[in-house]
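Exercise 7. Predict the joint structure of the components listed below.
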Amino acid sequence: DQQVKQNSPSLSVQEGRISILNCDYTNSMFDYFLWYKKYPAEGPTFLISISSIKDKNEDGRFTVFLNKSAKHLSLHIVPSQPGDSAVYFCAASHPNTGNQFYFGTGTSLTVIP
Amino acid sequence: ETGVTQSPTHLIKTRGQQVTLRCSSQSGHNTVSWYQQALGQGPQFIFQYYREEENGRGNFPPRFSGLQFPNYSSELNVNALELDDSALYLCASSDYGSFYNEQFFGPGTRLTVL
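Solution:
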């Protein structure tokens, strides 16, 4: 049962434009969400997080938006750079499971120079 | 500051064998979580260790077991290997002092079961 879903396996964006990666979840108990970036042959690297008490969190070029009623979050990267090309995973956790994270299947982002 | 390290990098085993994977947590971290990432999938939580005790477990059978040592390093043991156990095994360390804490991942061990 996939509780966190990323329905777009891949995304291509021109350098300098906005990249929007989407994530949906089914468990209304989730209260903390994270985005990780993964390069080949490396482990996932934490990018940005958001608590369910917020609807937006921004860190430099990266912004995460949370729509709790729609059970949807998105990661915006502006402007996109070639070095952003990687696989992006969203993850979620809820109070009952503490540090257990539920990951989506990932979206492979390619930023074209 | 030393990051999370895992050994070995790659491993090939046959069905029915047993395997031990190792993880050294990042300096200052007291919690280790293990994940299995099958091809084309996201990481799936196996279990977490805090203060040498299992502190949460995902939907994995008992043949997946683990240990955490006083220096917070950890092992993942898998008995009676099956073909479906072929995956990337990721270890992540964190500081349990904060309830919401980012997990820092190692590069993973690629296990192939033939």
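Discussion. Chain B touches chain A through 28 residues (CB under 8 Å).
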